[in-house]
């Protein structure tokens, strides 16, 4: 009876009836040097577009503060502040700085945002080159967070360059941008943002059933290897697939080991899930630097959900072998199923 009644309705009205309920509106913009895809679930299009506008503005604002590619941003200006002269930073950077110090220390220097000189020495922004021994020594001498003094006492917040050191926001800028989106309670509709290599979802209002997300092949970035469901926090991946160069016949990636000053190339990508997108971002870079052995050990001892993917053709259907920590396997049980008999977790390994 109901079916007959529906059948007599005009097709347009029928379509709008069936389409009633939450809709997903997507927007793609180019910012932070990457393609950003934002999706919002909303009762109607106008409301969705309003939130999408707000979110894009927020991402642009973060970029306008933190980008170290531009000279006009807050961090860009800090990088050019005369040595020894304190630079007053705003409340956002003031809150961010101790977190950078904390994880720099926790990772024993594998994450170091003060690697501007090394990045320049290796030409990592211009296609890569091998620095001479003298250049490398000079760059190492002015790399490292210890070359900045941070002082947040007496109401003001100041950062002082103690030498020709410069910051590079590459490993934490996107994460901080996503963290700010999550912290803004006015983004009340469920959302997911993909910043190319890092995905985050809304925390204040969740999407029932979570959001679909994919983990890419460690070398062929366009290929998805693991499909997961993300219902909170953020998933960040660091790998060589994004940008890798050939220098004197040796491949190097865009990530370097601040402890040795050497540019790295690893085939394995490092993925970290964390409640806080900032931490997910900086830790995925740190774990890539550490490599699978030390990286899994670090992640396990810190109770982190982490995954290393290596290209593999042996007995795999998706061309990758996985190694995950127990918290990762617990959070994403669907991942274990997909890389069946390849995923090696600390749960399965057990005591030997
Ligand atoms: P991600 O893609 O998040 O792993 O960040 C990599 C970017 O961070 C690079 O393109 C550099 O700009 C910067 N970077 C490279 N090596 C490091 C490092 N060891 N610690 C912090 N930042 C780094
Ligand atoms: Mg990162």
What do you see in this structure?
The protein has 352 residues and is of the alpha+beta class. The chain has a domain of 74 residues. It is 36% helix and 24% strand. The chain has twelve helices and 18 strands. A nine-stranded mixed beta sheet has the order 1-2-6-7-10-15-16-17-18. A three-stranded antiparallel beta sheet has the order 3-5-4, covered by helices on one side. Strand 16 and strand 17 form a beta hairpin. The longest helix has 25 residues. The protein is globular. Bound molecules: adenosine monophosphate and magnesium ion. Adenosine monophosphate (AMP) binds next to helix 9.
Which regions are unreliable across 5 or more consecutive residues at pLDDT < 50?
1-18, 348-352
What is the β-strand count?
A: 18
Shape: globular
User: Helix- and strand-based class?
Assistant: alpha+beta
Widest β-sheet, arrangement of strands: 1-2-6-7-10-15-16-17-18
Number of helices: 12
H/E series, N to C?
HHEEHHEHHHEEHEEEEEEEEEEHEEHHEH
Mean pLDDT across residues: 89
Query: What Rg, in angstroms, do the CA atoms define?
Result: 22 Å
End-to-end separation in angstroms reads 67 Å
Sheet with most strands: 9 strands, mixed
Fraction in helix: 25-40%
Q: Percent of residues in beta strands?
A: 15-25%
Q: Give the bound compounds.
A: adenosine monophosphate, magnesium ion
